[in-house]
Amino acid sequence: QVELVESGGGLAQPGGSLRLSCTASGNIASIVAMGWDRQAPEKQRELAARITTSGSTNYADSVQGRFAISRDNAKNTMYLQMDSLKPEDTAVYFCFVSGRFGQVLAWGPGTQVTVSS
């Protein structure tokens, strides 16, 4: 079993930056990838960014070039640096970890990101 603790998020102005963190504990050895989904009001949940143990990354087209995902394996922590934020980035961001077959092992509780002037 894996437990996730998120931090970061909050309010930012358009063009501003925020950083999210997600720390995993428990059965760390089962984790192959970590990532962030997000869900905006009245929209479907979507993948924002994902990173594998080997460091391979993928991003939603809408955040490519503005968001950067990274991980510190020694700390079992993943980061999502969000720059050039737009109002449409407003959403609840959920950290997740997945296993070797792509199955989600755990979700974080979600953290609110609001981009508004």
Please tell me the overall pLDDT: 95
State the order of secondary-structure elements, H for helix, E for strand. Answer: EEEEEEEEEEE
Strand content: over 45%
Helical content stands at under 10%
**Main sheet makeup:** 7 strands, mixed
Question: Quick gist of this model?
Answer:
With 117 residues, the chain is an all-beta fold. It contains no helices and eleven strands.
Structure, described:
The chain is globular. It has strands at 2-8, 10-12, 18-26, 33-39, 46-52, 57-59, 67-72, 77-82, 91-98, 104-107, 111-115. Strand 9 and strand 10 (104-107) form a beta hairpin. Strands 2, 4, 5, 6, 9, 10 and 11 form a seven-stranded mixed beta sheet that branches. The chain is mainly β and 117 residues long. It is 0% helix and 56% strand. It contains no helices and eleven strands.
List the helices and strands and how they pair.
Layout: E1 2-8, E2 10-12, E3 18-26, E4 33-39, E5 46-52, E6 57-59, E7 67-72, E8 77-82, E9 91-98, E10 104-107, E11 111-115
Which properties best describe this structure?
7-stranded mixed beta sheet; 11 strands; single chain; mainly beta; about 120 residues; 4-stranded antiparallel beta sheet
